[in-house]
Model the fold of this input.
Amino acid sequence: MIKKLLNISLTLSLICCAYFAHAIEPLQNKSMFINGYPESAQVSSLRLEFEALGFTGFRLNGVNNNSRVDFTNRIDKLSTNLKLNFSYTNSPSLIANVSHLKVYFNDNLVTVLPINEQLSIVKNTVQHSLDLNAKYIQDYNQVRFELVGYYDLRCQDYFSRTIWTEINKSSNITLDQKQLAIDSRLEYLPEPFFDEKDYNKLNLPFVFAKTPNTQAIEAAATLSSWFGAQADWRGFNFPVTLNKSPDQHSVVFITNDSKPDFLKDYPDVEKPTIEIISNPFNRYYKMLLILGRDEADLKTAVTGLAFGHKVMTGRSASIEAINQLPLRKAYDAPRWLRSDRPVHFDELIDYPTQLQAQGLNNGPVKLNIRFAPDLFTWRERGIPITLQYRSTPESEAIDSRLNMLINQEFISGFLLDENNDLLQTTQALLPLVANTDTTQSTEGFSVNGINLANRNELNFDFRFGVLKKGECAVAPPGGEFGVIDGDSSIDVSEFDHYIALPDLNVFANSGFPFTKYADLQQTLVLIDENPTPNALTVLFNLTGHFGAITGYPTHRMSVAHLNEDADLDDKDILVIAKPNSIANDLDEDAQTNVLLNNNQRAIKQAIYNGAYDEQTTDKVEVSIKSSGDMAVITGFQSPFDSDRSIVSLSATTQNAFTILDDVLMNSEKLAQVKGSAAIINSQGIKTIQVDEQYFVGHIPVHTLVWFHLSDHPFILALLSILTLLLISFILWRLLQALTYKRLAEGDE
Done:
């Protein structure tokens, strides 16, 4: 009995010791932030239009008798009350009782709908609202329609134009989404802050306790570029808020000496730290905390997150050390086509079957390609591609072909080989096809119409023919495959890099010249001493744009205030400030003052459409002060290095920063930014091209001379004559010397 009591006492003592040991653990002090406060989960109703979901298969026929519409489900959402609302119109030729329309949800048959039940109805548009079972919902969901259509029970021709059903474009899917209080775990990253299953624009607020200093800005810019790379084509927005908790998922930057009021009691940290907690005011929303002893720790924490998030687990992770990350080389951005060797197609794919097409009227094989925007393509026919493809053999000599397009523009077409033996061998040997000739060749071909500044879409469209014998003898569709082999390659390694600047279209669409190095190691950002949240939002959205272009975080970009005497040599400089910004407390000859004077001169030239001169200074100053909401983007050569560039983004008011941000984040408006300057206001975008052009990059000397004199034929002709005379003179003197030598030898 005594022994039993001793055991109980010992157990209680261990429990008490464990309790007190746990109570003094630092993380225990943060328990109040884990679950937040109990409240009802937010429920939102969504209406997903088929067109908005990218659905294009509105018309079904005997060959293309399947079409599908896809939608996704976020990790932090619970979808309920799913309804499929659609209407369709049938061909009046379809026979009732045997013709029908099947509807599937994630390959589960939902219903079978009869076609043309009442033949007397002329307007046979049918409307349905079907409940979809929520238990079948997945991360990626698919609603599929399958037409089984017959117009003649004796002689069925799948290619008859009388077999069709058309789904109306007003069709949609409605559902309710309930917010889920998911666990705060780092292994989910980048979810729930960014969910790749969400095709909507990423909206992620960045929260600071007060206006951040340059190191905190660098940290936030790095994080925005990382999230921008994740979001890619979806778009993104990183609004900046000060000392306020957003009612959504957000990122909060905290140092031991600078904490927002809603987290003022949050424990200090001893190392750069990444944590996820629930929002103190709404536990259904998460906060990604970037913690540090000081602002330098914030940059370390963000860099650790960008490169080490895949090994982070639990709710909190501290960055013990970061091994020296290598400097990126020029033009080696992960999303840019490599320029040091040929690149194979299988290096460009996003999923295993991307290079394969199936079916008679299949969709094209698509590849997204982004080139370095300064490739020197003068007098080049195009960029060489080595193409390899294979397809299923045909039983007869029919016209099956492969068409190649770039950005929806036709380039070339190839007849598919009808030799069965060769095709069987080809499927193993992967023969090289180079031109429209059906014979095998190793000669390359060129693509044209490429905009080097943009992301380009390369399409390979297989079109299989069908041989019809008689009225009814038609080969049933199915079994047609076309494959672009992954060993196909595109090669830009022979091209030099040389480009005329300023060109704001190149900056707007490719981030050049800043993105020449994916980590932005040679980029300096100059910003006002006390930047407003709107100005910071412009910067973070821009660095997010850079990340989406390169696929790499901008962790080596430097930030300085305009009132600092920063080293501006050997840097591409990005200025985000008001048009009349001045550098306080600096000498008049300081580099920053020189830069700002050049910046104001460029802005005035833009406003006066290049007609500015020093005598109009007062007049222009008045114009700038009275211009209202206006933003100006200018590009010009750095006064500190002829091979460097400066891009300035100026806004007269806080609302003008919002207008500027709207242009930078809108692909249609971004395409309008061109020339050396762009003036943006509520009425639109006006672009200006001044004559102060300069070139960056390197090409061989003989090409350099030929290129720059190509617009001056008389000078070029004179130079050619002088060159020939010089060569003739040298040859004459050489021959004369040989003659004298021979005569001298004869005299001996």
